[in-house]
Write a structure and sequence with these properties.
By secondary structure, this protein is an alpha+beta fold. The protein has one domain (4-166). The chain has helices at residues 4-11, 83-88, 106-116, 124-131, 138-158, 162-166; strands at residues 15-24, 32-41, 44-53, 57-59, 63-67, 70-73, 79-81, 92-94, 96-97, 100-101. The strands form four sheets. The chain has a three-stranded antiparallel beta sheet. A hairpin with a 2-residue loop joins β2 and β3 (44-53). α3 (106-116) packs across α5.
Length: 170
């Protein structure tokens, strides 16, 4: 499915390379894949950590999902509950094309970085208020500072294209 930002990435020859690092399963119900993603534009590149949820995975051959938390292997009738267990037992696998792992899409990573850049334009209290976050939280301040770092990276990376691309729909 094409959108304005995807088309702009294609038109401006912004590309991506990704390396799958590991599955972060701090939460049993919401495991996520951690990627090292590098965006390339002209002679510049920027690398950030990027996470994708289990919804970006596919069912392994011979596995079906019976309900949101129940996975069944057709041969042997082995049953697994929960996404974390499904990933650990290779019921949910990374998408592949001709054997090569398919990582995050360039527009998804860029859209995330462009959203992060909003932290560069507001105070911590305003940013928390806009997102409904607690402004008396260490987690919130750490997230805000990470967003500011990513925002600064994407502004430098895109240069004069930053303002144009930040207004594209995704």
């Amino acid at each position: 499915m094409s959108n304005e930002l995807s088309q702009a990435c294609e038109d401006n020859k912004i590309t991506i390379t990704s390396i799958h690092l590991y599955v972060d399963s701090e939460s049993e119900h919401f495991p996520r894949d951690k990627w090292a993603t590098t965006l390339h534009y002209k002679d510049r590149s920027v690398t950030i950590e990027f996470f994708t949820g289990s919804g970006h995975r596919v069912l392994a051959y011979g596995v079906k999902r019976e309900n949101p938390r129940k996975y069944v292997r057709s041969f042997g009738s082995e049953v697994i509950f929960g996404d974390a267990a499904a990933i650990a037992h290779n019921y949910l696998v990374l998408k592949r094309d001709k054997g090569k792992i398919i990582g995050p899409q360039v527009a998804d990573v860029l859209a995330s970085m462009l959203i992060d850049a909003s932290a560069c334009e507001s105070t911590f209290d305003d940013w928390c208020s806009d997102l409904g976050l607690n402004n008396d939280s260490l987690n919130s301040i750490n997230t805000y500072l990470t967003c500011q770092r990513n925002g600064t990276k994407v502004m430098k990376f895109l240069g004069s294209k930053f303002m144009e691309l930040r207004n594209k729909t995704h």
